[in-house]
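On to my pick:
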Amino acid sequence: GLVMDFDARTTIPFEGERHNALHDARYQAKYVSAIWQKLLPSQADF
């Protein structure tokens, strides 16, 4: 994300208790999803 000048860590707020496996996994999924959305153009762009 930083290569594209996008820092998902500061963009996406953490919800829940830190170091709780379920909360951490949900945050990581949102984090990865946000980066993929920046990397891949949406279908509307075609």
